[in-house]
Every structure is written in structure tokens, then in C-alpha cells.
Design goal:
single chain; 11 helices; binds 3,4-dihydroxyphenylalanine; BirA Bifunctional Protein, domain 2; seven-stranded mixed β-sheet
Length: 344
């Protein structure tokens, strides 16, 4: 062994230290290694403390060798530290559970779904049940029972997709036929909403779509008045659009309600001052409503005299467009991920 007369083999110490360092994968192991060699009672501290015991002529050489070894191993320690820290901790299996994973891409809800859920939540809190009806309807439920006999001019309000030459079957033009189906089925008093697809022979442009969604509401009982209608709808619209929204009722006409009303909210964009969105009127029309026409009760088989009710209907797309400031109805159906990921 040639140690140049020194009482320790510095090459062997370096080699052992390197081998140990090589195997290290974790921060705590690295810290043990550092203490073993560089600690206050570590290998180098001991070697250094032995220098004065050496004969005079060996001391400079011993000091130099120890320093060289320290510098080299310290260099390797710093390199290893970067590796261990950047890779965080690989565990025994060699897998690093601490690396950032790939974020899974999750789905988004169409604003139609978001608005529908809001509406359902608000009305369920008011004790309304949620019902559905068929998208393929008969002339009876879509028109006749809603006080629109054949050749009634009001039928022109809805351009209809008929499914047969006799014009008996059609795609419902509104959710109002659910009113009749529910009145036939439920025990009075009741209150319900229905949300679903509706169909009209309209152009597909920025403000029209041949398929869209509506929400229908119906409350029937022995003492339902127009005040109830107002209270429920004002509450609903303020829940949906915010508590500072003002609500306006204007007289209107629907064959299935009497009296009928058209209901607007103060423009959510300009707060009623007038802007492009509200056509500079300060108001946005949002709902049709009214007291159920006596003829509708009769058609639904309700003959008791003292029964009254109110009904309303609104377009979901229209609500979503106002709420989320969407200016083209076609956006809802394009499945463009850049559009869909904007709403929560
Ligand atoms: N069904 C009407 C439409 O599609 C909306 C509507 C108006 C529904 C008044 C109602 C109502 O229930 O009372 O235009």
C-alpha cells in the first residue's frame, strides 16, 4: 500500500464515499452521507484532528490530500443534491410518486344544462315538482287542449314540424302541452315545472334555432291568483339574475291564459339605461305567463268551478344568452370546446 507514508488511504476513502453516494436516491440518505463525511464527528473531521499527531514533514501533504478529497466529495454532494431534489424522492420501486402528474381533462357542462339546473333548483326550493312530456306530441296536446282549435289564427305563432299528412302528430312547438298531461295526472293542488326540447320550423341563424329548450311552469289550486304568479316569478327572476333586477309585467295575449302577461327584466348589461342588448329600451323580455284559461281546465278534464292556476313559459337558450352574454344561439350546439370550457 502506498499512502506516501500517511496513516490513511485517501483514495480508498474517496472510492467508498463515491460508491455510497452512487446508491443514494433519497434526501434523508444524502443527509446521512453528508454527516458521515462532513459532520462534526465525520470522517474528514477525524482525519483533520489526526494531523497534529503526524510527524512534521507529513503534515502539509496530509492536509492537502484531505482538502482535495473534501473538495471533490463536496462537489459530488452538490451534484447529487440537485438530482435528488429535482427528482424529489424515488421510492423503493423506482417510481417517483411525487412528480406532477398529467392533469386529466374533464368534461364541461353546456350552459343549457347549467341554466336548467339553476331553474330546477330554484323551483324545487319553492316546492315545485319536475315533470317531463314527450317531444313527439299530438295536435290535441300541442294546440287543441291549449284552447287553439283547428284553424285558430294563434297557431301561426308557431311554425310547426308535422310528422304525418293528416297533421295529427307533430314535434311539440312549446312545453305547454306538458300542462295538459300533468293536469290529467296530478291531484289538485299541485305546482310543477317542465324543461325540455321544443321544435319550430325556423331558420338557423344568430337568434333562431329549429330545436331549442323551454321551461314551463304550472301552479293549480283553489285560491291561486295573479298575485301568486307575480310573487313566484319575481322571486324566480331575482334568484336567477340577481337581487337588484327589476321585473315588469305588461298585458299580452296567449290563447291558453286569461289574462296573459309578457314579463321583462331590467337589462342586466346596462341596468336599464339602454344599450345594444336591450334595443335601447332598458328591458329584456324573458317570460310569457298568465292565469290558466277556463277552457284549458275543461280540455284537461277539470270541471270543478273554483279551481284556478297560473302558468308561464320561457326559452332556456334566451335565459342562458342573457346570463352568460352569448350573442349567437348557434354556439350552444356547435360543441366547440373553446366555447364550452368558458362556463361553470
Ligand atoms: N308556450 C308559449 C310559447 O312558446 C310560452 C308561454 C306563454 C307559456 C304563456 C305559458 C304561458 O305557460 O302561460 O311562446
Amino acid at each position: 500500500m502506498n499512502n506516501n507514508g500517511l496513516p490513511f488511504d485517501i483514495e480508498k476513502i474517496i472510492e467508498d464515499a463515491r460508491n455510497e453516494l452512487e446508491k443514494i436516491t433519497r434526501k434523508d440518505e444524502l443527509e446521512y452521507w453528508r454527516i458521515k463525511y462532513f459532520g462534526r464527528k465525520g470522517v474528514f473531521a477525524i482525519l483533520t484532528s489526526k494531523i497534529p499527531e503526524l510527524s512534521q514533514h507529513l503534515r502539509p501533504e496530509a492536509g492537502r490530500k484531505i482538502n482535495e478529497a473534501k473538495n471533490l466529495l463536496n462537489e459530488l454532494l452538490q451534484q447529487k443534491k440537485i438530482i435528488v431534489e429535482s427528482a424529489q424522492t424515488y421510492n423503493d420501486t423506482g417510481l417517483n410518486y411525487t412528480l406532477t402528474g398529467l392533469k386529466p381533462d374533464y368534461g364541461y357542462f353546456n350552459p343549457i344544462t347549467l341554466v336548467s339546473r339553476d331553474i330546477v333548483r330554484i323551483f324545487q326550493n319553492l316546492g315545485f315538482g319536475v315533470h317531463t312530456g314527450p317531444e313527439i306530441e299530438t295536435d290535441f296536446y300541442n294546440f287543441e287542449a291549449l284552447n287553439m282549435p283547428e284553424d285558430h289564427p294563434a297557431r301561426d305563432m308557431w311554425d310547426t314540424f308535422y310528422l304525418d299528412a293528416e297533421r295529427k302528430f307533430l314535434l311539440r312547438t312549446h312545453t305547454s302541452p306538458v300542462q295538459i298531461r300533468v293536469m290529467e295526472k296530478l291531484k289538485i293542488p299541485f305546482r310543477i315545472i317542465a324543461i325540455g326540447k321544443t321544435f319550430r320550423r325556423d331558420a338557423f341563424d344568430a337568434s333562431h334555432s329549429p330545436v331549442f329548450h323551454q321551461v314551463e311552469g304550472l301552479m293549480v289550486g283553489y285560491d291561486i291568483t295573479f298575485s301568486n304568479l307575480k310573487a313566484v316569478l319575481i322571486f324566480f327572476l331575482r334568484e336567477l339574475f340577481g337581487s337588484n333586477v327589476r321585473v315588469r309585467f305588461l298585458p299580452s295575449y296567449f290563447p291558453f291564459t286569461e289574462p296573459s302577461a309578457e314579463i321583462s327584466i331590467s337589462c342586466v348589461i346596462c341596468n336599464g339605461r339602454g344599450c345594444q342588448t336591450c334595443g335601447f329600451s332598458g328591458w329584456i323580455e324573458i317570460l310569457g305567463a298568465g292565469m290558466v284559461h277556463p277552457e284549458v281546465f275543461l280540455k284537461a278534464g277539470i270541471k270543478e268551478k273554483n279551481i284556478t292556476g297560473f302558468a308561464f313559459g320561457a326559452g332556456i337558450e334566451r335565459i342562458a344568452m342573457i346570463k352568460y352574454r352569448i350573442d349567437d344561439i348557434r354556439q350552444f350546439y356547435l360543441n366547440d370546446i373553446r366555447f364550452l370550457t368558458q362556463f361553470e
